Amino acid sequence: MKIKLFAATAVLALGLAACGGETPAPETPVAEAPAAETPAAEPAPVATASIGETPADPVAFMKERHEKYEDIGKNFKVLLDNSKLGTPDLAAVSAAATKVNDYAKEMGTWFPPGTGPEAGKTEAKANIWTERADFDVKLVNLQTEAAKLVTAAGTDAAAFKAQFGPTGGTCKACHDKFREEDKDK
Amino acid sequence: MTDTTVTSASPAPTPDQPVTRQKVWDAPVRLVHWLLVFLVTVSWWTAEEGEMQWHYWSGLTIVGLLVFRVYWGFAGPETARFSNFIKGPGAVVGYAGKLFKRDYRAAFGHNPLGALSVVAILLALIAQVGLGLFASDTDGLESGPLSPYVSYEFSKDAGDLHEAAWNILLILIGLHIAAIVFYLVVKRINLIGPMITGSRKAEAVEGSPSGIAPVPLWRFLIGVALAGAVVFLFVWLPTTR
After folding, report:
1. Under an 8 A CB cutoff, do A175 and B139 touch?
2. Global pTM value
């Protein structure tokens, strides 16, 4: 009985995981995603505005990109720490959410051609460039949820805590597909 | 049965009298051992699968088990006590020398060499959960309970070390299992059974034939309360900074 239950749960979990990993690309056109999700006051995010040209110094460009992502991580830790508190520091939360949102808006320009694994040390996987459409869908999701986080941080603690997970989820969704796992795995 | 060698301290069994069983491990030691086996496996699996909420609780439970085990190393029965099984280099070398002698008798509790393994695994586990308490991922999406008290950089480094230190634990666990297989195959001594049942045949063993004496329940309860308090502290701390 227990073994059957376990097997059923495992199969169900695997099924869900498989669905979760594959659905967004074909079913969510880029143009429609933000329209449905974005609050009326926010302008619709545009991910594909500029993919950009190959930079003159790709290695320096990639290093800078890495540092910007670390800064996002740093700001996200402020959000994470505060999400666990009974009374979050909403001023700090707003500042961090705004920073993340600003980075998200310009992130579409961070992956020009020639800045992938072929150019040097990076955790950016080559499929960013071969599956750019799905990458952009995930980026729009981030931009949508990051904008909502700024709004939530300006509202109250409950709104912030409710929005923290969905925003973080858009980071993870993209990392799971487009970022290299740690080198030792 | 008839060619049984018994310790000098125990009375020689008469042919029709069954060999008595020696109680080696008390229930708390066995429970902690097998819960660690289970939860270390869970912790590894949840980390691999990114199930960090389960990893968090699995790790915190290990924290509680370690607090209890360290306490039990001072308050438990004699085979659980550090003072009883941690020996100097002389005893370790002496034990290794006896290992292949014909009159070898199984140690009562941890032998001096195996004690090194116990201490190493305990220290590695303590270091591992210690790092996990402060750890966060590079994205600031998941973190241990003490991460809010340290910087992003510190927390991220703790997370990287937490991941790397797992390899040390794997090596120690490998040695531990290899030693058990060695005793089983080469020495024909089953160490797994006693860790499940708590006792073994009192033949060719050291220590008193009856084994460990019972420990009062209140001492066990103090350990449980201590472990629970520490776990509670780590659950509560991040909500209050």
Report:
1. yes
2. 0.80
